[in-house]
Q: What sequence folds into this?
């Protein structure tokens, strides 16, 4: 089983940007935790981050045929990334949207996601643990356990 773990704009700055909101872990640390959990679940994790919507779409289009599911933190593209949403929908893969912070407890504009209509679910506000929860949930679903 292969899961894509995709991160959008500014997530490369984790560990350096507002730690009170986003936590202290770097993206590399989060990816490492995901990969360790993937090994325990016998799942290959392919990670990717870009600050460019086009690069995210290219990655999705190139990887989707060999993947079983997608975990995505779209960053700011959550709110206006319509072409990213289309690319995710075109894969027909199960998608779980993840946000480190509680997007519903912040500015009003953050509560609107253009990605959520194509996602099976959304995890918001659990910090880095949200990625692990998304992986466990996605794998369970793909195995028919839920």
A:
């Amino acid at each position: 089983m292969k899961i894509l773990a995709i991160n959008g704009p500014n997530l490369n700055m984790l560990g350096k940007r507002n730690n009170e909101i986003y936590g202290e872990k770097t993206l590399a640390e989060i990816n490492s935790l995901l990969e360790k959990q993937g090994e325990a679940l016998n799942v290959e994790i392919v990670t990717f981050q870009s600050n460019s919507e086009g690069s995210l779409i290219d990655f999705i289009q190139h990887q989707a045929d060999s993947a079983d599911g997608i975990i995505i933190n779209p960053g700011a593209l959550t709110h206006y990334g319509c072409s990213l949403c289309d690319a995710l929908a075109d894969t027909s893969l199960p998608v779980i949207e993840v946000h480190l912070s509680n997007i519903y407890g912040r500015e009003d504009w953050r509560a609107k996601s253009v990605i959520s209509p194509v996602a099976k679910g959304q995890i918001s506000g659990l910090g880095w643990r949200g990625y692990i929860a998304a992986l466990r949930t996605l794998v369970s679903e793909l195995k028919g356990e839920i």
Residues 101 and 125 are 4 Å apart (CA to CA). Residues 2-142 form a domain with the Rossmann fold fold (CATH 3.40.50.9100). The beta strands are 2-7, 44-49, 69-73, 95-99, 121-124. Helices lie at 19-22, 27-40, 53-63, 82-91, 129-142.
